[in-house]
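Hey,
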Amino acid sequence: MAILTGRPDAKIKHVAEFLNLHPETVRLLARQGAFPNAYKTGKGGRTSPTRIPWSDVEDFRKKAAPASM
């Protein structure tokens, strides 16, 4: 398991690839609060890119992992 903290905050596209999800799913999860520290860059408008800290991605992955048998 890679620890991803210390890297620059991720673009939606990179989070989607890492989690094997569609980018729109990641956007929806970010809007729903699954990545509590996600933020908009630039002027913060509707079309501004979203960035997600890798620590949030790691936390999400740990919570979403299926329980081992």
